[in-house]
Amino acid sequence: MKKTDIFLGLYVLVPIVFLIVPMPTVFLDVLMMLNISLALIIMFTALFSKEALQMSSFPTLLLITTLFRLSLNVSSTRNILLQGYAGNVVDAFGQFVGGGNLIVGVVIFMILIIIQFIVINKGSERVSEVTARFTLDAMPGKQMAIDADLNTGAITDAQAKERRQKIQDESAFFGAMDGATKYVKGDATAGLIITGINFVGGLILGVVMQGMDMTEALQKYSILTMGDGLVSQIPSLIISLSTGILVTKVSKESDLGNVLLRQLFSIPKVLYITGGALAFLAFTPMPTLICLCYAIVFIAAGRAIEATMEDVKVENEIDEEEESAEEIRKPENVVSLLQVDPIELEFGYGIIPLADVNQGGDLLDRVVMIRRQIALELGCVVPMIRLRDNIQLNPNQYVIKIKGVPVSEGEILFDHYMAMNPGYVEEEITGIPTFEPSFHLPAIWITEAQRERAESLGYTVVDPPSIIATHLTEVIRNHLDELLTRQDVQNLINNIQEANTTLISELVPKTLGVGEIQKVLQNLLAEGISIRDLVTIFETLADNATSTRDTDVLTEYVRQSLKRAISNKYFPANEMTSVVTLDPKIEQEIMGSIKQTEQGAYINLEPEKTQEILNAVKEEIDKMEELGKNPIIVTSPIVRMYFKKLTSEQFKDLIVISYNEIESDVELQSIGMVTV
């Protein structure tokens, strides 16, 4: 057992014992001085700590010290009533502080009580209550600010974790302090009651049982009571003061002394005015010499501070010039310029208010929601999205970059809304024609005044932040396979490893490497298939990787094992879904043109034949779009991946599904066939 644990145990146990067992006056003197010493230590620790959390144990400390102080009070009361003597400390306080005068001692004691009750305790209790409430109310905003900084790359994951822990510690501390201040208030109340009992009980014992006259009993027991009250109330006052200092501490930069001096004596003009006012008071009935001395001191201090500030300003200017010159002379460090952000959103200065939290912008919050949405939808963690302004862009323009290369852009009108006709609205509204950036649909910019009318007519009305967020989401979704790195795959493996140790040990690296798993997952993401069900994916890979290491073939096996999810994604329940089939002749031609290499298989069709197939596919797609149907082509399992590769360049969003990827209860209706 540690020595500190033993000391703490004794510190808590001894007061409980002394509530019952009489204490010798010598031992009582020792513990009373210890009580005063600990109170001073607590006060100065609270005074010089840089932030409140440095004394996170303060609520517990309040409870323990209060119990200790009350036990001493009870012991001293017992000695006063039984022996008429409570030790040298109590006697000294009664004689010295009160000057041996009953009236003076009583007045001083009452003043101390008033100070503690009305000023310090009341203020500390109110500050603790308000601080606890505001700390709890501010927690969601602080958490969102941390998420925003994390998404923009301003802080690392470790720093974000540390800041979140600090927020939790602050809420727990101030919540505990809200209750702990009641200990101090109760201690003061108990001390006042005990003092009254001492006085009355002492008079009764002195007059009735010891045969003293009233004057003698009053003189003796009043001094003892006053001394006992002061011995207990002064440490209580110090602890109460410590509580007030701690809950009102706001600076996190330095100790309180430095902060107070810097804030009070940092403006020379204030000291000049104060000195002038005191110099004026010297010519009034006020003490002339004292006023003039203070006036001279404050004016001299103001002049010294002003001179120091001028010197610091000159030194800073010299340092800045030297740093600038040094930067020019030394070779440029270009290593930092080589870092490429996975996703960037650059915008002109006109869009800055949308990203600035202080101006009411919620774009950062929307970025957080985008990452959550894609994680839930596709099972992949989106890298941090860097937001930055670019003065080279038009004021209302934004550009989305993937790995440093622009892939899409858009332009918005600030304080306008985008209205889109869903297809059934006949009445037109006036506005500025434009195109929705995500899906290139025709739209109209309208003002705030037109919004209500447009919505009543049936138009889909979207605000600028939603436009940018939707556009960014679609770009990320379309390029998510490029963003999935080997490290991301390793993180996904680590995430499920604890619960699936056998599976992971069989698969990685024994059967497949991380790079091969990455290619399979990329193939799935490229066609919009969720990879959340990693256990099913990895089990399928473990089952089939022994027969083939071709990642394209393995992807097809995985897709077939995910047929429930694929069917649920593309085929609504209890509905007939219209699809297009592929001519068996075309399937045979595709399979006959496949060439196998060490790097994998590829299609070796003649260009004319390829173009004929693509033209036939386009015809069927156009037919389905005219009917308002989502283009879906169903093929045989062995052909699916090759047909998808054949059409992916021209028809990126075309859905190609094999028969083995469709659940048996799905109802399909073939409304066309790709044939040449």
UniProtKB/TrEMBL annotation:
<keyword id="KW-0813">Transport</keyword>
<feature type="transmembrane region" description="Helical">
    <location>
        <begin position="30"/>
        <end position="48"/>
    </location>
</feature>
<keyword id="KW-1005">Bacterial flagellum biogenesis</keyword>
<comment type="function">
    <text>Required for formation of the rod structure of the flagellar apparatus. Together with FliI and FliH, may constitute the export apparatus of flagellin.</text>
</comment>
<keyword id="KW-0966">Cell projection</keyword>
<keyword id="KW-1003">Cell membrane</keyword>
<dbReference type="InterPro" id="IPR006301">
    <property type="entry name" value="FlhA"/>
</dbReference>
<dbReference type="InterPro" id="IPR042194">
    <property type="entry name" value="FHIPEP_1"/>
</dbReference>
<keyword id="KW-1133">Transmembrane helix</keyword>
<keyword id="KW-0282">Flagellum</keyword>
<keyword id="KW-0969">Cilium</keyword>
<feature type="transmembrane region" description="Helical">
    <location>
        <begin position="7"/>
        <end position="24"/>
    </location>
</feature>
<feature type="transmembrane region" description="Helical">
    <location>
        <begin position="92"/>
        <end position="119"/>
    </location>
</feature>
<keyword id="KW-0653">Protein transport</keyword>
<dbReference type="InterPro" id="IPR042193">
    <property type="entry name" value="FHIPEP_3"/>
</dbReference>
<comment type="similarity">
    <text>Belongs to the FHIPEP (flagella/HR/invasion proteins export pore) family.</text>
</comment>
<keyword id="KW-0472">Membrane</keyword>
<dbReference type="InterPro" id="IPR042196">
    <property type="entry name" value="FHIPEP_4"/>
</dbReference>
<feature type="transmembrane region" description="Helical">
    <location>
        <begin position="190"/>
        <end position="210"/>
    </location>
</feature>
<keyword id="KW-1006">Bacterial flagellum protein export</keyword>
<keyword id="KW-0812">Transmembrane</keyword>
<protein>
    <recommendedName>
        <fullName>Flagellar biosynthesis protein FlhA</fullName>
    </recommendedName>
</protein>
<dbReference type="InterPro" id="IPR001712">
    <property type="entry name" value="T3SS_FHIPEP"/>
</dbReference>
<dbReference type="Pfam" id="PF00771">
    <property type="entry name" value="FHIPEP"/>
</dbReference>
<feature type="transmembrane region" description="Helical">
    <location>
        <begin position="270"/>
        <end position="301"/>
    </location>
</feature>
